[in-house]
Amino acid sequence: MSDLDRVLSRIDADFDTSLARLFDLVRIKSISTDPAFKSDCRQAADWLANELTAIGIPASVRDTNGHPMVVGHRKEDGKAGPHVLFYGHYDVQPVDPLDLWERDPFDPAVVTRPDGSKMIVARGSADDKGQLMTFVEAARAWIAETGGLPVSVSVLLEGEEESGSPSLHPFLTANKDELACDLALVCDTGMWDRQTPGITTMLRGLVGEEITITAADKDLHSGMYGGAARNPLHVLADILAGLHDETGKVTLPGFYDGVIEMPEDVRALWDKLGFDHEAFLGGVDLKYPAGEQDRTALEQIWTRPTCEINGVWGGYNGAGFKTVIASQAHAKISFRLVGDQDPEKVRAAFRAYVEAKLPADCTVTFHKHGGSPALRLPFDSLALAKGRKALSDEWGREAALIGCGGSIPIVGDFKTMLGMDSLLIGFGLDDDRVHSPNEKYEMTSYHKGIRSWARVLYELAKG
Amino acid sequence: MSDLDRVLSRIDADFDTSLARLFDLVRIKSISTDPAFKSDCRQAADWLANELTAIGIPASVRDTNGHPMVVGHRKEDGKAGPHVLFYGHYDVQPVDPLDLWERDPFDPAVVTRPDGSKMIVARGSADDKGQLMTFVEAARAWIAETGGLPVSVSVLLEGEEESGSPSLHPFLTANKDELACDLALVCDTGMWDRQTPGITTMLRGLVGEEITITAADKDLHSGMYGGAARNPLHVLADILAGLHDETGKVTLPGFYDGVIEMPEDVRALWDKLGFDHEAFLGGVDLKYPAGEQDRTALEQIWTRPTCEINGVWGGYNGAGFKTVIASQAHAKISFRLVGDQDPEKVRAAFRAYVEAKLPADCTVTFHKHGGSPALRLPFDSLALAKGRKALSDEWGREAALIGCGGSIPIVGDFKTMLGMDSLLIGFGLDDDRVHSPNEKYEMTSYHKGIRSWARVLYELAKG
User: Fold this and answer.
1) How far, in Å, CA of A169 to CA of A157, rounded?
2) Is the pLDDT of residue B124 over 90?
């Protein structure tokens, strides 16, 4: 019997105690955004540091200006594979509205469905306590069964992920040498579906811009001035309307520089996934993909850059009517980036476009709202290949390579601050109700999640 | 010495007492919008009814659900000219901010400027107590000097003009037969400039529309859905941007039906006025007329129809950034109408245009905000010719035929409810600060205004 097989057997045999430990962690009300739960957050950090230390990954609670970090290390001298940094977060979302919960959110329970499938119901059961514990329990089984881990492991557990991670940047900066490893393992994402594991390999980047267009130096009466005075709301409409052409493409010169077409094999994989476009858009009462005409909705949200107006305002918006010509018009606009698109080049192209469209009588001010490039794990990366093999072995299905339309800030920070790629493996499902009442985690996600990490560590060690 | 000459001499001789009477009226704090001044409003109505009755126009105070009307009649049997209805309003705007007034707003005073010119400073000195008293004092002089008026005169003085005239419609409806005359005389407008009298002959109409465009049934995360989900703010921008072509013309089919080109002689008159386009736009920090490219700013605001966005909102407009795709986008849009443009045809054309632009996944709801046609006194009307002669005689300058970009609701009501055209003659100046602290009325406006009305009545009687 191989080491891996023995570890997997132990995981199965010990699963009840793994579940009990998750329940213990879930019972701690570590709501990071609410100061009333400050000591609960510390309690969760203490619990995790003790747990890690107990299983053989010496860990400590590290103070920050906010909630503490938990950091642990286990160096496996002489082993070949990469030194990995595992990341998760122990804080959870608030639970209101409490009356929509079917039971106490901090009193976890296993609920069996009519079809026999089971789920763990509690705040944090999925996001992220259940997920991070899949890794902790996998590590426990390896050390308990074999006396060590297949590769050197560091652990970083955060307590402010649900409240904007204000302490993360300073902590990474201050502890760069300690935390920089060869690869990050992040367990905070989802599977493709109930049967199909997933690795999130693409995260879109983001450029945010706010513009204010000013025409007259005061609001004008449209009777007195209408027709003669420049109306900044018209100017804004022209600018915004011109950002896309009639095929849905963004018109900014050079915008698509750095956009990467998916390799044929990835496309083929996606076709096999059978993404239900109708259900995706139908779920929000839409029917037709609205973006670039020659792309599927899945391509649009995973692999294509966008330009979206996120807010527009100006003039009168109260009840009734006011015949005003506003002095100013405002918009918030964001660009989702993919591949190697350069955020600052996109920003510059946008600003140049706006300036060029501006009539002589108007001025514009720009306000920058963040900019980060897209992130991706190269399709030919070794870590990705190992992760795919581990997951496929465990789930009996090829792992889906998932894109993510949004961004996960920690992944960008690991890349830019610590120089590490991240392997994003998680076992959440779309219906887990994270951030909502009656959050749950599939029992299979927890059990096979633990087994999956055991296999990932094993594959990574192969070198 | 003709009757007119004797009347004018009497006006000059009695001017001090005319001024004293205006001061008496101005001292009454008839702020219609503030319930605290309800009895002051009635006091002003009583004062005017007594005054009219005393000079020989028997008048009474007539109750409404709001502030009372003053109605008086003097029938001149056997005289040829039209029976005219004079309209003015005795209510005034609030006086706040009080600390910006250089003196008590209800303690009128004559202030002499360094150049010797005089002005009457008080709330209501111009709008509209000073203006309405020019007519009352002219009538007084006619009756006192000749025993009668040149034509039959009815008087309607309102007390709610500054608060939306809620009682006017019901009052006109209930007293239609009593108030319907041959011609309305309205004294609530301005001169062209300090030296040049004006008759306002064109008032633009107005169509107001509010639209709400709905795409998804909830706000979406732009990371999750951006690129695939229809963004109603983009749809709105496209719709609004398409309302004008690149020459500034409104694109709605049939929009310009009923628009009337000005006769050459009126254009010539305007050219002579020497409108200072630079000062007009420069006053609000603009430089270039923004509307139809082949029209001057004066044409644009007086004689050309417009389409203006008066308000736009949707998505996130708070501090910072939110990567949201809004479910709904909103706009308020108005059209200024001229000539014989049909408000309901314009509304229908707008709605058809929006519906046609709407992508399959969006719905739109329309909300109507009023619709009224443009009003104009035909350039060849007899009353206009008489008014022009009277003013030119008094001021030694040809009267300007003025357009008004906005609307004066009473003029529309007189036309639609009582079947009367209105001759709009007033002596206000742009710098009178009506509605603002330190409102003033030129002493010459008051004095020559009285003389002007004496002449208008004289000319109208010529038949």
Assistant:
1) 14
2) yes
Predicted pLDDT of residue B214: 97
Residues from chain A contacting residue B309 (CB–CB below 8 Å) = 231, 233-234, 237, 315
Tell me which H or E stretch contains B308. strand B306-315
- pLDDT for A463: 65
CB contact under 8 A, A323 and B315: no
Q: Which residue carries 């642990």 as its tokens? A: A72
% of residues, chain A, pLDDT over 70: 100
Q: How many domains does chain B have?
A: 2
Cα–Cα dist B429/B191, whole Å: 6
Residue closest to A281 by CA, chosen among B330, B324, B220, B355: B220
- For residue A237, give the CATH number of its domain: 3.30.70.360
Point out the domain boundary residue: B372, B393, B428: B372
pLDDT of residue A293: 86
B161 and B209 belong to one structural domain: no
Q: CATH number for the domain including A82?
A: 3.40.630.10
- Residue B319: the pLDDT is 86
Q: Is the pLDDT confidence value at A327 over 70?
A: yes
Q: Is residue B286 part of a domain?
A: no
- Taking the Cβ of residue B313 and every Cβ of chain A, the question of whether any pair is shorter than 8 Å is answered with yes
What are the C-alpha distances in Å from A74 to residues A51, A52, A79, A462, B363?
Answer: 14, 10, 12, 18, 59
- Based on the domain organization, do B11 and B118 belong to the same domain? yes
Interface size, chain A vs chain B, as Cβ–Cβ contacts under 8 Å:
273
Q: Which of B233, B245, B335 to mutate to test the interface with A (most CBs of A within 10 A)?
A: B233
User: Residues with Cβ < 8 Å from A274, sequence gap 6 or more?
Assistant: none
**What is the DSSP code (8-state) at residue A404?**
E
User: Strand order of the sheet with strand A109-112?
Assistant: A109-112, A118-121, A440-442
Identify whether A97 is preceded by a cis peptide bond (ω within 30 of 0).
yes
Same domain membership, residue B323 and residue B235: yes
- Tell whether A276 is within 8 A of chain B (Cβ): no
pLDDT at B370: 82
pLDDT in tens, A337-370: 999 999 999 999 999 999 999 999 999 999 999 8
A433 belongs to a structural domain: yes
The sign one gets for the Cα dihedral A124, A128, A133, A138 is positive
What's the burial of A36, exposed, middle or buried (CB within 10 Å: 0-12/13-18/19+)?
A: exposed
Mean predicted lDDT score pLDDT of chain B: 94
Q: What is the pLDDT of residues B162-171, one digit of tens each?
A: 888 899 999 9
Q: What region does B46 belong to: left with phi over 0, alpha with psi -120 to 50, or beta?
A: alpha
Q: Which residue of B lies nearest to A212 if distances are taken between CA atoms?
A: B317
The residue ranking higher by pLDDT, A405 or B403, is: B403
Q: Min CA distance, B308 vs chain A (Å)?
A: 7
CA distance B48 to A277: 75
pLDDT of A262-304, one tens digit each?
888 888 888 888 888 888 899 889 998 888 988 888 888 888 9
For residue B72, give how far its alpha carbon lies from the nearest alpha carbon of chain A (Å): 33
Q: Tens digits of per-residue pLDDT, B261-314?
A: 988 888 888 888 888 888 889 988 999 888 898 888 888 888 899 999 999 999
Structure tokens at B113: 């400027």
Assign 3-state DSSP to chain A and report helix, strand, coil percentages, each to 5.
35, 25, 40
Measured between CB atoms, which of B227, B306, B370 is closest to A306? B227
Judge if B179 and B215 occupy the same domain: no
- Token digits for B221? 């995360």
Task: Say if B395 falls within a structural domain.
Answer: yes
Whether the CB of B68 is below 8 Å from some CB of chain A: the reply is: no
**Which domain covers residue B23, as residue numbers?**
3-203+374-461
For residue B306, what is the nearest residue in chain A, using CA coordinates? A227
Asked if residue B81 and residue B218 are part of one domain, the reply reads: no
